[in-house]
């Protein structure tokens, strides 16, 4: 199974922005709907954004209006633009297919703190 490679995390102040990237194989990228997930300390992993096609997206209520998921077919890369970050967005972020069947990658850590 192809394993995603996430990047772009870091430390950011509340209200700030980050853009996460995820590289996957071309076969996976062109075949499956993709999603971003996150796992906060002591909590279960949750899906925060999904992209069903170039125009079909869905967001968790907690990030609706602040996060934007997109994909670049030429680069086989999935993105998550995160704006107006809040402390509760602190988590390790992962990408995977919409049903999470790939082997999970290492994720990229996002810390929102002043």
Chain-wise SSE layout:
Layout (H helix, E strand, L loop, with lengths): L4 E3 L2 E3 L5 E6 L2 H6 L2 E6 L6 E6 L5 E3 L7 E6 L4 E6 L8 E7 L10 E5 L2
Parallel strand pairs: 2-10
Antiparallel strand pairs: 1-3, 3-8, 4-5, 4-9, 5-6, 7-8, 9-10
Task: Describe the structure in your own words.
Strand 7 and strand 8 form a beta hairpin. This protein is mainly beta. The N and C termini lie far apart (39 Å). The protein has one helix at residues 26-31; strands at 5-7, 10-12, 18-23, 34-39, 46-51, 57-59, 67-72, 77-82, 91-97, 108-112. The strands form 2 sheets. A 6-stranded mixed β-sheet has the order 2-10-9-4-5-6, with no helix packed on it. It has a 4-stranded antiparallel β-sheet with strand order 1-3-8-7, with no helix packed on it. The relative contact order is 0.33.
What features would you highlight for this structure?
114 residues; 6-stranded mixed β-sheet; mainly beta; 4-stranded antiparallel β-sheet
What overall geometry do the principal axes of the alpha carbons give?
globular
Instruction: Kindly state the percentage of residues in helix.
Output: under 10%
**Rg of Cα set:** 13 Å
Order of helices and strands: EEEHEEEEEEE
Poorly predicted sequence stretches spanning 5 or more consecutive residues: none
The overall pLDDT average reads 94
Secondary structure category = mainly beta
Q: Oligomeric form of this entry?
A: single chain
For the largest sheet, list the strands in their spatial order.
Answer: 2-10-9-4-5-6
Tally of individual helices: 1
Number of strands: 10
């Amino acid at each position: 199974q192809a394993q995603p490679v996430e990047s772009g995390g870091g430390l950011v102040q509340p209200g700030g922005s980050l853009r996460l990237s995820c590289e996957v194989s071309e076969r996976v990228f062109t075949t499956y709907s993709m999603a971003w997930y996150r796992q906060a300390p002591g909590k279960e992993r949750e899906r925060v954004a999904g992209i069903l096609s170039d125009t079909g997206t869905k967001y968790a209520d907690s990030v609706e209006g602040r996060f934007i998921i997109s994909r670049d077919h030429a680069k086989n890369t999935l993105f998550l633009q995160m704006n107006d970050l809040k402390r509760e967005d602190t988590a390790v972020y992962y990408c995977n297919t919409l049903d999470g069947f790939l082997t999970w990658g290492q994720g990229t850590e996002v810390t929102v703190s002043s």
